[in-house]
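User: Sequence in, structure out. Go.
Assistant: Echoing your sequence, followed by the structure tokens.
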Amino acid sequence: MQAYRDAGLPMERLMVGTGAAALADAVALTKRAAALGFAGALVLPPFYYKGVPDDGLAPMWRRWCARRPSSRFPIYLYHFPALSGLPWHVKLIRRLREAFGPRIAG
């Protein structure tokens, strides 16, 4: 991420993937992305364990949002179940949008 910023690229037009197997790593990467001026972050669901139900993902997301640097930094939910083994279901996205509003940008 630092190399992109150092190269003088238009950070306000770039989104970076900050998904990680560990919640603390994903949060740290997202905080760094926000500090460097990226336009937003693309986040996978926690992919290490497969088949986690939505009721398990929702509390994880609450912890994730509580540790985020800013509610103004947009987060995009990366829906790629073939890679992550976990989809972002429409019902869960609705729950997250109701709970966290604009923190969930797309």
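User: And one key feature?
Assistant: The chain has five helices and three strands.
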